[in-house]
Protein: DUF2993 domain-containing protein
Amino acid sequence: MWGEHHTMRALRILLILVVIFGGLFVLADRLAVGFAEDEAAGKLQASENLAAAPDVSIKGFPFLTQVVSGSLDDVEVGIKDYEAATGADGRTIRIDDLTANMKGVEFSGDYSSATAATATGTASVTYAELLKTAKSEPTQVAPGVTANVVGLSDGGNGKIKVAVEATVLGTKMPNPVYVLSSVTAQGDTVRVQADTLPSFGGVDIAESRVRAITDFEQKIDGLPGGIQLDKVQAAKDGVEITVKGSNVRLAG
Structure:
């Protein structure tokens, strides 16, 4: 009886120690992952010249064993506002709410660089931002007829509604002409193309001249870590884009 009592007591003590040390390990693991997330956010902010630190979330548990292996299973990066290069005169286009999910992130021994095997993500471009690409200045499309794009909005069913304003023989048409357009991604370029052509006061205008107004494209280059455009779709407040990449450099 005496031996059984002490055995049970010893087991209870052992269990308590296991719980305590297990709790300490979890605490240490969470402190370590929090520190690593902050460090990674700082490096990304510096390397991508961001106005604010991005959100970095390292998934998976435990973190410390992943560090020992030199590879993280899953890292999520969120950038609220990102100024992407357009390849034209140093201009940029604002990308909103860029979220990228990185898989298989391997880092160097001194943690100065990190590369993800694959990355997928989403982001958006507002219609107001995309409108800067369209021809907003009146342009002659036929003798006595000028036209320009004055607005972009959601046309439903994945289409963009393009508002075109026209002036015919010196008289501005009382209302814009609306046309539904398709939006696609071709390489690093977002293309907007009218499904049907608008009519300007019954004037016969060559299709190429009309499309010079209604159709436009926006190159989006220099996304973080070398990720690239994959797909685009018109939505309520702007164009939603998906991105993907391989061998994406997070730092270094």
Observations:
- Residues 86 and 220 are 5 Å apart (CA to CA).
- The two ends are 65 Å apart (CA to CA).
- The chain is about 25% helix and 45% strand.
